[in-house]
Amino acid sequence: MTLLLQLLWLALPLILSGCVHLLAMRRDWWPALRRAPLDFGATWRGRRLFGANKTWRGACVTILCTSGFSALLGWLNARWLHLPPAVPFAELHPFAWGALLGCGYILGELPNSFLKRQLGIAPGALGSGATGRIFWVVDQLDSLAGMLLCVWPVWQPTLAVIATLVAVMLVAHPIGAWIMVLVGLKSHVG
């Protein structure tokens, strides 16, 4: 039961934040932030650092919504759910917990994007052969690694939790990509 509760505190705010981000992309909310890349257009060796797809809209929506949904989950737990403590920091400081998750999610994707841009791999593409297979795995797990690094000062999950998260991400991330294809936000499941 504790494992499921820990997964709930990690996953639910991010899943709901992802839904808001999908709506923001679909309806083109905050277009000025959509046009503002995180790398400010900077290049290294003649190539973009992260590319045009890593925007301030994605970062702001992810961080703010994950914080808000974490705070809502904390409020619901204190008022009605009364779930046993699984991640004490998340229960005591839900908004800060959500901020750590959201920042980790965004920061975790940046090294992968940087490597792909430097190798000439287009946003959303994987590359071919062994490189493509490696990037497929990294694409599924990069945000999880970032989140775990960001929450590490306040919560150190067990190996069982980490293994479960890896397994879940290897399934959930492609399902999320498939949904994005269905709603027209991506051209293919990469």
What report would you give on this structure?
Strands 1-2 form a two-stranded antiparallel ribbon. It has 7 helices and 2 strands; from the N terminus they run H-H-E-E-H-H-H-H-H. With 190 residues, it is mostly helical. The chain has one domain.
The count of β-strands is: 2
Structural class of the helix and strand makeup? mainly alpha
Strand content: under 5%
Domain count, please report it: 1
Oligomer: single chain
Number of helices: 7
Question: Main sheet, how many strands, which sense, barrel?
Answer: 2 strands, antiparallel
Helix content: over 70%
Tell me, briefly, the overall form: globular
Taking the alpha carbons of the first and last residues, their distance comes to: 33 Å
Strand order of the largest sheet: 1-2
Report mean pLDDT, rounded to a whole number: 91
One letter per element, helices H and strands E, the order comes to HHEEHHHHH
| Poorly predicted runs | none
Rg of Cα set: 17 Å
Helices and strands, with pairings:
Blueprint (H helix, E strand, L loop, with lengths): L1 H26 L3 H4 L8 E2 L2 E2 L7 H26 L6 H5 L1 H25 L10 H23 L7 H24 L8
Antiparallel strand pairs: 1-2
Descriptive terms for the model:
7 helices; mainly alpha; 190 residues; 2 strands; two-stranded antiparallel ribbon
